[in-house]
Each structure stands twice: as C-alpha cells, then as structure tokens.
C-alpha cells in the first residue's frame, strides 16, 4: 500500500472542506484510481472535476500514471484542483455544430424577417445552403458515431466560447451574408457571371464533396487506431497521411475554401481564415506530440497540416 496525502491546490470547494486527507492506495494504483478514492470521500467532487498534480509542479498528472512511479513506495503528497462543473466533449460538439443547422434554415427560409424583403434565391444560394447543411450534418453524425475522445469532459463555461465560433461566424454571419439580396437570382452580382453557371457550381460541389469525403476517411482512420474506452494513440498511416500529420484539417480547409470561391463572401472568407488559423495551431501541437511520443518511429518528412509548407 502507498500512503498519499491529498491537499487542495487552491481554496477547496465547499463540498471538499475536509482537505487535506490521507488515503491508502494499492501499490499498482493509478492517478485515475486515486481520483476515484477522492470522489468516494467527497461524492460531489466527481472524477472529471479533479486535476491531480505534484506540489512542486502544477502540471496535470495523466490518469494512467502509477502513484508509485510519481511518489515512490514511501508515498507522499499530491494536490487536487477543482476544475469546476464539466460537460462532455461529445455534448459540446453537438451544441457547436447544431447552431448553424438551426441558424441557416431560419435565415434562408425567413428572408423578410432579416432583410425586410423577400429573396428569390439563386442557384448559388441553393447550392451553398445545401453544402453548409450537409457539412454540419456530417459533423454531427461523426460526433455521435465516429469520434473517440482522449478527454471525456471540459469545463462547462468553455461551451459558450467554443460555440461562438460556429454559431456566430459560420452560423449567423455566413447565413446573413450569403442569403441576402446581393446573391439573389436578380442581382447583378450573380446575373451573367460565373456564379450563375451550373457547370461552375457543380465543379465546385465535386471538389467540396472530395474534400468532405476525404475528411471523413481521415476520421475513420483515426478511429480505427483507438480501441473504444481507451486513450491509446498510434502512428496514423494511409490515405492523407503520406505528407502531413493532420489531413482532416487540410481537407476541411479545402471544403471551406470552395465555399469562398463559389460566393466571394466576406463572411465566408473571415470564417475560413479564422478556422484555418485555429486548425493550424492544433495541427502543429498534434504534430509535435506525435514526434515526441513516437520518436524515431514517426515518419520523417511529414508536415503538420499543409504539405511542404507547414
């Protein structure tokens, strides 16, 4: 058995005023097992609210880490921090992607409410409406049936920040801009231009479909590398991974770039730039994690997100 003293990293929450407390752990107990013991002692301090760290290092200890490897056989002191109310990543994703699925139909089908007049939708607007809805329906289905998350929850307050990106930029801003009279069937911006050419719209749709299906293929590859209910990571290979670590982000950027090319919409451009910048940051981080975790096993010459560029 290993004796572990648990103290509060900051002011303890009201339901854990009994801290510090000393707990006895099995020699093979992990940080996750220790969290379960804390939750048994303080039931409202459930596992996902806890962050366990060393007293001398505030970095979070991974749940798989063995207590004996952290403190030694003699035991010692660890700190716990309350992360606040939590919400599952799956629920957050459903809320994020659900916003545009509600907002776009409201703007598209109720133009008088938004623009003070009826809008006779052009072929361009009809195509964009269908592509945007299909994109977010795909994301919802992937969230339910495909994605396996390395972390089960996040702080509840983050749902508002995360959702704002989709609800405002790809939701309200994009819908309001693209479905307005400027893009209608009688607009000079559309009439007699390539944006009113059916061949152009179908070519764009074909490129968009290629990018979306490639993105889905990448997600299925990543899913196959992680058994259910685990946090196992493995080196991804196959379609899309020959030159980059995060082809899912690369293909999503292509899909949104197509929407920009079809419409020339400022809102579409802003969303695509912001989304691409954020995905690039995530890609660089994941790329570094892959190289650190797998070392020489990780293929040399891969870039993070854009082949031969980044």
TrEMBL record:
This is Steroid 5-alpha reductase C-terminal domain-containing protein. It is a multi-pass membrane protein. Keywords: Endoplasmic reticulum, Lipid biosynthesis, Lipid metabolism, Membrane, Oxidoreductase, Transmembrane, Transmembrane helix. It is found in: Endoplasmic reticulum; Membrane. It comes from Sphagnurus paluster. PROSITE patterns: S5A_REDUCTASE. CDD domains: Ubl_TECR_like (cd01801). InterPro entries: 3-oxo-5_a-steroid_4-DH_C, SRD5A/TECR, TECR-like_N. Belongs to the steroid 5-alpha reductase family. GO terms for biological process: very long-chain fatty acid biosynthetic process. GO terms for molecular function: oxidoreductase activity, acting on the CH-CH group of donors. Residues 153-310 form the 3-oxo-5-alpha-steroid 4-dehydrogenase C-terminal domain. One of its GO terms (cellular component) is endoplasmic reticulum. Residues 26-70 form the TECR-like N-terminal domain. The chain crosses the membrane at residues 254-284.
């Amino acid at each position: 058995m290993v004796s572990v003293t648990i103290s509060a990293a900051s002011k303890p929450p009201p339901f854990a005023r009994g801290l510090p407390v000393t707990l006895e752990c099995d020699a093979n107990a992990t940080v996750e097992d220790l969290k379960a013991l804390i939750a048994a002692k303080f039931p409202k301090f459930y596992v996902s609210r806890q962050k366990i760290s060393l007293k001398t290092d505030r970095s979070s200890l991974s749940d798989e880490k063995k207590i004996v490897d952290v403190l030694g056989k003699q035991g010692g002191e660890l700190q716990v921090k309350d992360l606040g109310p939590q919400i599952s990543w799956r629920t957050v994703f459903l809320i994020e992607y659900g916003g545009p699925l509600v907002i776009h139909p409201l703007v598209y089908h109720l133009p008088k409410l938004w623009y003070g007049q009826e809008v006779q939708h052009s072929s361009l607007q009809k195509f964009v409406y269908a592509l945007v809805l299909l994109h977010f329906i795909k994301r919802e289905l992937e969230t339910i049936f495909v994605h396996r998350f390395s972390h089960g929850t996040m702080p509840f307050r983050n749902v508002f920040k995360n959702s704002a990106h989709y609800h405002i930029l790809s939701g309200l801003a994009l819908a309001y801009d693209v479905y307005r009279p400027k893009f209608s069937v009688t607009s000079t911006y559309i009439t007699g231009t390539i944006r009113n050419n059916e061949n152009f719209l179908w070519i764009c749709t074909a490129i968009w479909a290629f990018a979306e299906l490639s993105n889905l293929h990448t997600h299925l590859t990543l899913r196959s590398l992680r058994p259910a209910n685990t946090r196992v990571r493995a080196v991804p290979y196959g379609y899309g991974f020959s030159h980059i670590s995060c082809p899912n982000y690369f293909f999503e950027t292509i899909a949104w770039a197509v929407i920009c090319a079809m419409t020339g919409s400022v809102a579409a451009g802003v969303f695509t730039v912001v989304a691409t910048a954020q995905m690039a940051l995530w890609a660089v981080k994941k790329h570094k994690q892959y190289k650190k975790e797998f070392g020489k096993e990780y293929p040399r010459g891969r870039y993070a997100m854009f082949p031969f560029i980044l």
